[in-house]
Amino acid sequence: MIERTSSPLSLDGRQRLGAGALLALASCTFSACVTINIYFPAAAAEKAADKIIDEVWQIQGKPSGDKQPGDSANPQTGK
Amino acid sequence: MNRRRIDLFVLSFFMGLLAWFPAYAQQADLEINTPAVAAIKSAMQARHTTLEAHYASGAIGLTRDGFVAVRDANTVPLSQRQGVNAEVGAENNDRRKLYQEIARANNHPEWAEQVQSTFAQRWIQKAQAGWWYQDASGAWKKK
Question: Which of these, A19, A72, B72, B95, could form a disulfide with B8 (CB 3.0-4.6 Å)?
């Protein structure tokens, strides 16, 4: 006499539930990462400042990064 | 079963990554295209036509904290001094509003100070030769 402890079907259901929980947990973990990711974007701020200053002071054509040749944050420096 | 669980974990990991990516990509640029920023910018642009001569003469200079200040009022004719003071005041008002508005537009009003110090460096960096600015110790220097 062979008795099954559980059918493959019910095992599948439990697995699915576990997977769902796992997925929810992973999503929560990552969205939490986004929420607490509030460091100041210094490079972006510099880029924004350059753009505004160029407009206010009407600086035209001249690449803004000319005094910082290694400034990779400014795509205009590429020749 | 164990293997399947691992597969599912990997899948959820990448789904999480997918949800996280746009938020990350958004940080590549700071939002500066708001009506308020545009209004402040055009006011400052118009004012610059008068301020420019005063930068060049050394009457006003760029402060280390991202504002402008009267440095040497003697270079300005007496009749114009009050006007220069008013322009400097208006300029600083706009600059303060600009820093706050950029921080606010990016949903982080507490960034205003860091935006300000970023601008402080960039104004000086982009100043024309002959203009005056304050160094880190607050002393006036000619560029």
Answer: A19
Residue, of A72 and B68, whose pLDDT is higher: B68
pLDDT of B78 strictly over 90: yes
Does A5 have pLDDT greater than 60? Answer: no
Minimal Cα distance from A19: which residue of B?
Answer: B8
Residue boundaries of the structural domains of chain A = 8-37, 42-68
Could you give the angle at which helices B78-105 and B35-57 cross, rounded to 10 degrees? 150
Scan for tokens 């005041």, then name that residue.
Answer: B89
Taking the whole predicted model, whether its pTM rises above 0.80 is answered as no
Q: Residues of A numbered 9-68 whose beta carbons fall under 8 angstroms of chain B's beta carbons: which are they?
A: 11, 15, 18-19, 22-23, 25-27, 29-31, 33-34, 37-38, 40-42, 44-59, 64, 67-68
DSSP label at A4?
A: -
pLDDT value of position A14: 75
Domain count, chain B: 1
Cβ neighbours of A34 in B, within 8 Å: 20, 23-24
Domain limits for position B77 = 2-142
Cβ contacts of B12 on chain A, cutoff 8 Å: 19, 22-23, 25-27
**pLDDT tens digit string along B38-58?**
999 999 999 999 999 999 999
Residue in B92, B122, B113 with CA at minimum distance from that of residue A52: B122
